[in-house]
């Protein structure tokens, strides 16, 4: 048996079409959904991410305001000042500070300074706390995208055994929380997990967010499992692979996301959805 592919590109197009419609409704009320993007330094990967976000925003009618700052000369204090201005600006619906920030900048302080009502990445403690309480405002974009892909695969997490591999604040932990809220029985694995193969073998839903190429072997996967591969790893030959051995998993998984073309496109779509949700709140007054 060969696993069904969960097509993140197609799913993201559907999400973006919904966003475009909602943007149109905001614009008709005189509110142009606006995302402020802050990029410090010249990290090539960050530049690509920021460019892609800008393009996607333009596609759906979201305005962007770019703040590109040199690493040298930008201090924690100057960045805090910019974030405070953007937080106070009525016309800005979302603030995105592209991570990682250069090491001399206190990233935690900067993220904490973003108005939680404009924190479209969903990383502010206020938003993570709301998620924990079951009162989400902005859900972090990657885990939100993973949940949508599970839904697209026709899988209801309720009562199922789910394993999240990875416990980062931006992916693993919120992912576990979302699966819990959807009534899955959730296990979280990490670098100190003793027998990862055994944990993987039990999971009906597997979400891999580690950052190690193909570390989850196909033969570990429970037959019929739904596999969401968040990992993006570049190999020496330039190709991209996930955290799951995709070829090996095809014969055991019931459904699986490819890399690229799985979770990645959903992350940007989730960001756009968060921006329009914020603009809708502004439009309601
Ligand atoms: P982090 O490095 O912050 O977290 C990695 C996690 O993996 C940690 O919790 C770590 O455990 C765990 N881990 C490391 N080694 C092992 C191991 N041998 N067995 C089990 N767990 C292990 O990464 P992120 O969460 O930020 O990202 C994870 C991956 O997802 C990366 O490849 C990243 O590029 C990708 N990503 C993709 C996105 C997309 O849009 N598709 C968006 C965001 C990330 P411990 O806590 O114990 O150290």
Concise overview:
By secondary structure, this protein is of the alpha/beta class.
Tell me about this structure.
By secondary structure, the protein is of the alpha/beta class. It folds into two domains: 30-116, Leucine Dehydrogenase, chain A, domain 1 (Rossmann fold), CATH 3.40.50; 139-264, Rossmann fold (3-Layer(aba) Sandwich), CATH 3.40.50. The protein has helices spanning 8-28, 44-60, 76-88, 107-113, 125-132, 141-152, 172-181, 196-202, 246-250, 263-284, and strands spanning 4-5, 34-40, 63-69, 94-97, 161-165, 185-189, 205-208, 226-229, 233-234, 240-241, 255-256. A six-stranded parallel β-sheet has the order 1-11-8-7-5-6, with helices on both faces. It has a three-stranded parallel β-sheet with strand order 3-2-4, sandwiched between helices. The protein has a two-stranded antiparallel sheet with strand order 9-10. A hairpin with a 5-residue loop joins strand 9 and strand 10 (240-241). It is globular, with a radius of gyration of 19 Å. The model has no long low-confidence stretch (mean pLDDT 97). It binds NADPH dihydro-nicotinamide-adenine-dinucleotide phosphate.
State the main characteristics.
15% strand, Rossmann fold, single chain, alpha/beta, 2 domains, 10 helices, globular, 3-stranded parallel beta sheet, binds NADPH dihydro-nicotinamide-adenine-dinucleotide phosphate, 43% helix, 285 residues, 6-stranded parallel beta sheet
- Based on secondary structure, the structural category is alpha/beta
Number of helices: 10
Please outline the major beta sheet: 6 strands, parallel
What is the level-2 CATH architecture name of the largest domain?
3-Layer(aba) Sandwich
| Mean pLDDT reading | 97
Instruction: Tell me the strand order in the biggest sheet.
Output: 1-11-8-7-5-6
CATH class identity of the largest domain: Alpha Beta
Q: Name the CATH superfamily classification of the largest domain.
A: NAD(P)-binding Rossmann-like Domain
Distance between the termini: 53 Å
Please tell me how large the radius of gyration is: 19 Å
List the ligand species. NADPH dihydro-nicotinamide-adenine-dinucleotide phosphate
Roughly what percent helix?
40-55%
Q: Output the CATH topology of the largest domain.
A: Rossmann fold
Instruction: Report the uncertain regions.
Output: none
Q: How many discrete structural domains?
A: 2
Secondary-structure element series: EHEHEHEHHHEHEHEEEEHEH
Give the number of DSSP strands: 11
Strand content: 15-25%
Shape: globular
